[in-house]
Design goal:
Structural class: alpha+beta
Number of helices: 7
Number of domains: 2
Largest sheet: 5 strands, antiparallel
Shape: elongated
Low-confidence stretches: 1-6
Radius of gyration: 22 Å
Number of strands: 5
Strand order of the largest sheet: 1-2-3-4-5
Length: 189
């Protein structure tokens, strides 16, 4: 099972993949299985992939089988625009008696919180697509054809940002960069 994000893949062993798959299928894990769940690099708490989202109830289920309900909604603004996040958490005190609470939440009395971005459904669909055999073959072909050219543009030509503003001007600038790369390819033939 792959986990696509901008950070290191937390599912790095077959036991971890098996445990995460069991959580996603709705099984409550044994303490041994829970011991194989991946943890975050900074805080060493269970990674978000260890919690299963249930669409019907709009809630998460933790590895111990406890339900995490929607508590609040936050809106943040950055350069790209507005981003909505839903905050899910367990009820107060529910995690206090849990033997592995120290690996799951910072404070067992308050429980664990999970953020869900408005873009999470799209990310999940992409993960599913990339996990399929067709997706892996497509990405492998892209890695051999397109990605080296993008790397060349970014690294060798040092085009990491556009110098113009506006979609039309950026398209023109990108056309010039692509034409440069294509002429270089033709000259090498």
């Amino acid at each position: 099972m792959a986990y696509i994000s901008d950070k290191k893949d937390p599912i790095d062993t077959p036991q971890a993949a098996e445990a995460v798959a069991a959580v996603r299928q709705g099984f409550t894990l044994s303490l041994e299985q829970i011991g194989h769940l991946p943890a975050g690099e900074k805080d060493k708490l269970f990674d978000k992939c260890c919690f299963a989202y249930e669409v019907q109830t709009n809630s998460y289920r933790c590895p111990a089988g406890r339900r995490m309900t929607h508590q609040k909604k936050t809106v943040s603004r950055d350069r790209e625009g507005q981003l909505e996040r839903l905050i899910f958490s367990t009820e107060r005190g529910v995690c206090a008696g849990y033997p592995l609470a120290s690996r799951c939440c910072k404070n067992a009395a308050t429980g664990r919180q999970i953020n869900r971005s408005e873009f999470e459904p799209s990310r999940e669909r992409m993960r599913e697509r990339m996990d399929s055999d067709k997706g892996k073959a497509h990405y492998k072909m892209r890695g051999e054809t397109v990605e080296p050219k993008i790397g060349y543009i970014k690294d060798t030509l040092s085009v990491r940002r556009f110098s113009r503003r506006g979609l039309e001007k950026v398209r023109i600038e990108l056309d010039w960069v692509c034409a440069t790369v294509n002429i270089g390819i033709l000259l090498r033939c």
